Each structure stands twice: as structure tokens, then as C-alpha cells.
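Known limitations

C-alpha cells in this collection are predictions and should be treated as such. Users comparing against experimental data should check residue numbering before alignment. To illustrate the layout, the record for Persulfide dioxygenase ETHE1, mitochondrial is reproduced below. The input appears on top and the generated C-alpha cells appear beneath it.
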Amino acid sequence: VLSQLSIYSILIIMLHTLQRTDHPAHPFPHTHKASEPVNFPFILDDSHGHIDTPTIQLFESESSTYTYLLADKNTKEAVIIDPVKETLDRDVKFVKELGLNLKIAVNTHCHADHVTGTGLMKKQIQGLKSAISKHSGASADIQLSEGDNITFGKHCLIVRETPGHTDGCITLVLGDKSMAFTGDALLIRGCGRTDFQQGSAERLYKSIHEVVFKLPEDCLLYPAHDYKGQTVTTVGEERKYNPRLTKNLEEFVKIMDNLNLPKPKKIDIAVPANLLCGLQD
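Generated C-alpha cells:
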């Protein structure tokens, strides 16, 4: 079930003119009701007037992963970020029913908690190419580097390398710097762990402070995961309120070294599969 909205009504929202409404200022991070699963598409707030860059946030409940679908309203060219194998059918159906030309499926890093849907998605959508950081060690059609552009219609996502959670973590910044997709590097009021997959607390701290926190204060930040029902935050909010990243480097490293988290349940399956673009023999 996509949502209470019909596909037709979502299509109207995405591909026709979106009338901007001025809303009173509201606090970040945004949330949905944590008691309700979010297995439906969530139309991202049009607070920057992006009537021609519809962006949809989708959710996979088992790993609490957010997948993002961005489209150019006029050309219908689209990009998907961090698709998940378990929601492959939903995402492919959604792309086809909206009449989108999905060009690139990009992973923000080699995930350890779920298997990417990228490889299987390529088999169902003609011409789709996969992309991931060249530092990830994973197979993909496009090996991304710092400063590369992922274009769709007249829009682009700029690749910024933000290692620390893994060597191959990237943040994808919309060309006008109004929004960014931070993967597992920066989470809402948190950050990715650094105790496996070449993790480094020092590098993560540097990545966030020297890359993400250099974006405009009102830049909207969309993470790859959230476990509390939160959907979006801003650079300004995280610089001010993130309980880990407001610390100095020494304090941050100490926090990260003492998290003592259990390893992801699917790490032994997910990492080998994701090194092969999610395709297994």
C-alpha cells in the first residue's frame, strides 16, 4: 500500500505545478507519528519553492532506511538514492506509474544493514545505471569522486566525499545547496557508527564539520536512516543541537569509542551482496 493518497493524486502533486504556500515557521526535525510505520511515499516539504524538483521520501521499516526519489518535472528524468531490496517492487511500480525516466540509482555507501535494490532494479528498468563512491570497493556502472555531478533534467546532485562511517560515504548536495542527502554520515541528532567497515571517528568528525556543516544554515538534510520517526533536519539545527557533533574532536571520539553497539543483524549478508551491487549468485 503506497498511502492513503492515490497514485493519481501523487502524480498531480509531482508532475504538475505545485503552488507554494507560506507556512509559519515550524521546528526541525520534522517527524511522523513514531507509532505508525511509514511504508508510504512522503512528499518532501516545498519550503524552497522547488516546484520543478519533486522529491519523495520512502521508508523501509525493517532497517529503518529512507530511499529518496528525485525527478525533474519537465523531462521526468529521475534519480533514486539508497533503494532497498525488500521494497524493490514498490519502488519500481512507483517509478513506472509516475512515468519517470529513472537514470541513476546511487548508493551513499556500501550498506551493512540491508541489501541494496540497485542491481535488481537495473534488471527491471531499461537504461538504469548504478553509482557508488570509487572508495567503497563496490561494483557499479559509475564510480563517483569528489565534485562529480549526477544530472537529471536541468538539475544535478553534487558528490561530496564524507568518509568516516565507511571509506566510501558520500553526501549528495542539490545544485543550489538547498538540500542534501547525507547517507549514514550525519543522522538527525546523531551520526553513523565508526566501529566497523574502515570506520574512523576522526574522519567522520572532519567530514561533517568541514563539508556538511559548511552548507547554508537552512539547507535541508535528509539522512539514510532514522529510528525515531524523524524525517528531516537542517544544517543550523544539527550544528546547534546534535549531541555528538557539538562536542570537540576529543570528546566526540570518546563518545564513538564507547557506544558498544551490537553489530548489524544483516552485516554478514549485506556487505558481500552490496559489494556486488546487491546481486548474489
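For this record: The first strand starts at residue 30 and ends at 31. The helical segments are 7-15, 88-97, 118-124, 201-210, 235-241, 249-257, 267-274. Please report discrepancies through the issue tracker.
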